[in-house]
Amino acid sequence: MGGTGKSPVVAAIAQWLVDQGERPAILSRGYGRADAADGVVVVSDGARVLASVDRSGDEPLMLARQVPGAAVCVSPDRHLAGTLAERQLGCTVHVLDDGFQHLQLARDLDVLVTTVGEIPQGRVIPMGRLREPSDAAARAQVLVVSDATAGAAASEAWALGISQSCGARRTLGAPVPVGRESGAGSQAEAGAVMAVAGIANPQRFFAALGESGAHVVDTLTFPDHHRYTPADSQRIALQVQQSGASAVFTTDKDAVRFEALGAVPFALYRIPLIVTFEPADALFESVRAIL
Fold it and tell me: Which of 85, 155, 178, 186 could disulfide-link to 25, CB 3.0 to 4.6 Å?
């Protein structure tokens, strides 16, 4: 299920493809969007962002902004989305965001993203977080293990019957103002902050903020894909005042939903997530091999 870090890996692969001269299309089902339009919604044509968060969903819009050279198309029918991307947008390769169970579409490469022990020790929903029994992991050709060394990733891959693996390290970038034109905020970097997240694993974000040196004095969680309301904004503002925080830190995914709300009565910053792999080229060499 959510929270293992799939979308940052999608962004990394798509950016690598752009750097190699390919024209990738990220194909997403657009889970959680408010306006589930029929057909295909082109979130980005590879040059411009064309859809709002209500029509695209938060993760596709986030990916469109993170990888400006990639097209992003949303549809429950990813074959239809891919066909449009090839014929109208000139795309040369497709990356499915959260596509391991989308067996209707044949794939050249399956990349499975997990954390140490999550699959071998997991249980299938509703008793646990797995969408399939653990032996289904062997369908993947590459295993990416978040917050793990190359050795730990290799051990996890061996246990699951997957031939290639790499660890993924996630670090946080400098705060970026949301809804304002100024650069990274020195006031936010130096002062007490409140952390707000509506993602599948908010505790991981809060812990990473603390490890990065941020002075987090309060936290607030919302459900994954939560659409922020004016009442939420007022609640956050009150909690900011009570905690003595100078700013609110949130995730890239939350930021696109906050922007749809318009101006908020507190200083809001998104914290970019930077992913690096160990060994550095293991994932991308697997992608290169199937191109």
Answer: 85
